Fold:
Amino acid sequence: MNRHFLRLYLSLAAAMVAAGLSVFLVQSVLAPPKPVDAAVLADAEAAVRDAFTRGDAQAAMRSVADRYRVRVDVLPEDAPPLRPPHPPNLMDRIWAPPVDRLVTLDDGRRVRVIWDRPPPHLGPPVLALAALLAASGALVWWLVGLDRSLRELIAGAERFGDHDLSARVSEDPRKPTHELAVAFNAMAERVDHMVKAQQELLTGVSHELRTPLMRLRFAVEMLPDLDDPAERERRAADIQGDIQELDTLIGEILTFAKVRGSATVDATTWDVDALLAEVVEETRRLAPERPVDWVPSGLVLTADRRLVLRAVRNLATNAVRHGRGVITLAAASVGEDQIEVVVRDQGPGIPASDRTRVREPFVRLDPSRADGGLGLGLALVEQIAALHHGSLEVDDAPGGGARLALVLPAGEAAFG
Structure:
């Protein structure tokens, strides 16, 4: 990069000098030095003849020189003749050479009268050149800053490419690469978050798979030693249960990974009450001993129905596993642009200190419970809400218990 910027600097400097010289030459050609007036020349010749006729040559020369601002020389007798004037060329137009006239007196002496014309007026070209140089200096200063900022970006990108996912660059708004730096840091933050999430998911998956696999291995190893048909049947049922647990776990993991990696939703407009009625029936079949109520809302929602159904189903299942008493499902408008789907229970609720942690994958507040699930339920709801530009709210229900609300945008603008 040094080589490229050096070439740019040198080219810019050469262009500025060439531009200044061009302005100077054009100004000189278009506005050449003012010629000496012929009447002034004739008057000066007459004054020279008259002054030398009166006698004192030195006094005569001083008189004419002071009067007409010229130089007066008496040429010696052996001086060569003056060269005849030639047509003015480009240099004559630029540098304005002096004009001289030869006056021959009556006594044969030759007097040379020289008019030193003023040099060309350099004001406009000098000002133009100064302006160009100032502009070039400002541009070079800006390019130096750009070079420094680009070097920092390149260094940050190289560190990031070398697996340093914490590499970030300065977001100084005074730098010319401010917007690029902000975009780079945002990209790096997303990639860092994605990689960490994948690592956490891999760690959680390996942990969750280990337990049922160990049970399966133990049960399979025990089968050849069992002679009792009833015991063999019981062991086979345990194996079937572990296989079902593995299947459920893999399905939950695949769904969670798919939602987390998705960037779009299949948004359609549908009836919220129909979805709640579907979840209510499923919940009643899952826990027939638990009362399940719901409140019709008459609302419609534009969202991915399949994902929202999965999220509300997870909230209801969470209430079945961890709550007590009546489970209530309801939907309501929040302001003018949001709809919330709420699931309440009458259990112990979720402690305020755990309401952030419970949204993370594979987190179970009570790992000792056999029916505690896989710890992906609320994490999946959180991902579905984020995919719809919504949120998951975890609070206490009035009168006790947990209140979990899936808050989603009400209109189609969130997906446009």
